[in-house]
Design goal:
Layout lengths: L4 E4 L9 H14 L7 H4 L5 H5 L5 H16 L9 H11 L3 E4 L4 H10 L9 E3 L12 H9 L7 E5 L2 H10 L2 E5 L5 H4 L5 E3 L7 H5 L4
Parallel strand pairs: 1-2, 1-4, 2-3, 4-5, 5-6
Length: 211
């Protein structure tokens, strides 16, 4: 019998935060223009280290890091509807799971302070401090699959960003795209299935993609 695993991006998948991040980075790009079209969308799914490569001035980098730290410090992390039910179902079925996020350790600590029991749903958390290559590189998902003792080809990846979807596909996983950041039209042909969220989506729906 196949042993499966479930790997989750964080923002836009488990927590409803992408709108706030889009507004934040759009504001940063107005203050410190990069010349990149739709900058806030372009950087979705990438680590802060990777984002900082778009700025050469050290004072600018320091100011952006200060601003993002203040922003995240006061941020409320709201779980999407149906997330805890789905994660609880994975636990009941003995399917290990992991978070694979470009977020840093401080943000993860804040998330788990706001939702103390949330960490218990996951066997592994891979954050930005544990990867050297940002999405769309599959490194994070490959590390997570190894950490939960599963072949990447036997894992399901839940992603909302184009960079993350590419990473999941590159890892060889079955990718389920959430239309929370991009419209469904933009995700067509890029994932095994597109869902609007976890409400009404079941463990059996997930497993059916491997049949």
């Amino acid at each position: 019998m196949k042993q499966y695993g479930a790997l989750f991006d964080l923002d836009g998948v488990l927590i409803d935060s992408e709108t706030a991040y889009t507004e934040f980075w759009s504001g940063i790009d107005r203050i410190y223009p990069t010349g990149i079209d739709d900058y806030a969308i372009y950087i979705k799914g990438t680590t802060l280290t990777e984002i900082m490569k778009h700025y050469s001035d050290e004072e600018v980098k320091a100011d952006i890091l200060r601003r993002i730290d203040e922003f995240q410090h006061s941020m409320a992390f709201t779980l999407f509807a149906g997330v805890e039910r789905f994660l609880s179902g994975l636990k009941e079925r003995g399917i290990p799971s992991a978070i694979v996020t470009s977020s840093d350790e401080r943000k993860m600590e804040r998330l788990f302070r706001q939702h103390p029991s949330f960490r218990n749903y996951f066997d592994v958390v891979i954050d930005a401090s544990q990867v050297t290559r940002s999405k769309p590189d599959p490194q994070g998902y490959l590390l997570a699959a190894e950490a939960i003792g599963r072949d990447p080809h036997d894992c399901f990846v839940f992603e909302d960003s184009l960079q993350g979807i590419k990473a999941g596909n590159a890892a060889g996983a079955t990718v389920i795209a959430l239309a929370t950041t991009y419209p469904e039209e933009a995700l067509k042909g890029k994932a095994a299935r597109i869902i609007g969220g976890f409400e009404g989506f079941t463990i059996d729906d997930m497993l059916s993609l491997k049949c």
